[in-house]
């Protein structure tokens, strides 16, 4: 009786996995790593839009320290983080708790809350500009109620707060979906046990829901912090390319655009600004992660 030979196990070379990864790595290097390294290199030159420039060392970074617009942009970016992130951590969680209930018509409300996420930020910004304009719907309603017109787009602080409101409104649905996924993993038995002990809705939220979704809250806080610090579209659409009255609402990313574009754009100085934005964003991420680790260790 003859036996069939066993099939030989084909071994792969150590380089085989890298061959599969090569296309993705090349694309990432071409469109991610190379632009980043090029930006860092240009930050040490006085390059302009149509000229290569020459090496100037840290002159661009020293100029940042004495640039009043840089400090204005840094102030506005930090205020944006402080004003937007707490709302985008708490409000989507409360919204997720509302829409996770299985009641008739809840699918419609889930879709309605998520609609701003898929809408173009340009369309959303223009809609809010029309609403908040001096002759817009909101001022018309205020006049109808006997109040005076409010210069939402004329006052620097009101304009910044209005842009924050747009960011919060557009991001609610996105972070709501993240919280819905996290809430699906919370054991129902914990809520039932607390209910048996006489705990009300607020107490169950504080003692059961919040501890269970705390890692997700940290993730949402990190994502919202980065997006808020790098905000551009909302402020640009509502304040205009000049950054509002006197440039008082300019953010760091808007300042990069103002300095580095045009035929006489200062590419070197804009690159230095971009590097600073990257470092500050990375530092913000590390602070959020460190705070979460401390809380988790405690």
Automatic annotation (TrEMBL):
Bilayer topology annotation: Multi-pass membrane protein
Residue span, ABC transmembrane type-1 domain: 74-288
BP-aspect Gene Ontology terms: transmembrane transport
Record Pfam families: BPD_transp_1
Keyword annotations: Cell membrane, Membrane, Transmembrane, Transmembrane helix, Transport
Compartment(s) of residence: Cell membrane
Domain of life: Bacteria
InterPro entries: ABC_transporter_permease (IPR051393), MetI-like (IPR000515), MetI-like_sf (IPR035906)
Transmembrane segments: 18-37, 78-99, 111-131, 157-182, 212-232, 267-289
Annotated Gene Ontology cellular component terms: plasma membrane
Primary location: membrane
PANTHER family, A to Z: ABC TRANSPORTER PERMEASE PROTEIN, LACTOSE TRANSPORT SYSTEM PERMEASE PROTEIN LACF
Protein family (similarity comment): Belongs to the binding-protein-dependent transport system permease family.
Name this polypeptide is given: ABC transporter permease
Source species of the chain: Streptomyces natalensis ATCC 27448
The organism's taxonomic lineage, starting at the top: Bacteria, Bacillati, Actinomycetota, Actinomycetes, Kitasatosporales
């Amino acid at each position: 009786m003859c036996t069939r030979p066993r099939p030989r196990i084909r071994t792969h070379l150590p380089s085989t996995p890298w061959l599969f990864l090569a296309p993705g790595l090349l694309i990432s290097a071409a469109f991610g790593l190379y632009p980043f390294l090029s930006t860092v290199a240009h930050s040490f030159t006085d390059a302009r839009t149509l000229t290569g420039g020459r090496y100037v060392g840290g002159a661009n970074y020293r100029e940042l320290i004495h640039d009043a617009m840089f400090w204005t942009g840094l102030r506005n970016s930090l205020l944006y983080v402080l004003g937007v992130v707490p709302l985008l951590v708490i409000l989507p969680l409360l919204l997720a708790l509302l829409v996770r209930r299985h009641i008739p018509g809840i699918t419609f409300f889930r879709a309605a809350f998520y609609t701003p996420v898929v809408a173009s930020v340009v369309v959303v910004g223009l809609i809010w500009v029309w609403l908040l304009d001096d002759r817009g719907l909101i001022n018309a309603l205020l006049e109808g109620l006997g109040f005076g017109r409010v210069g939402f787009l004329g006052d620097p602080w009101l304009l910044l707060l209005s842009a924050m409101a747009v960011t919060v409104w557009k991001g609610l649905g996105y972070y709501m979906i993240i919280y819905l996924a996290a809430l699906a993993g919370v054991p129902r038995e914990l809520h039932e046990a607390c209910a048996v002990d006489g705990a009300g809705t607020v107490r169950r939220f504080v003692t059961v829901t919040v501890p269970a979704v705390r890692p997700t809250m940290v993730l949402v806080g990190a994502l919202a912090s980065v997006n808020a610090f790098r905000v551009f579209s909302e402020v640009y659409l509502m304040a205009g390319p000049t950054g509002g009255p006197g440039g008082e609402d300019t953010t760091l990313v808007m300042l990069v655009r103002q300095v580095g574009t045009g035929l006489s754009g200062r590419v070197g100085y804009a690159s230095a600004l971009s590097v600073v934005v990257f470092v500050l964003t990375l530092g913000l991420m590390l602070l959020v992660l460190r705070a979460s680790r401390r809380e988790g260790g405690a």
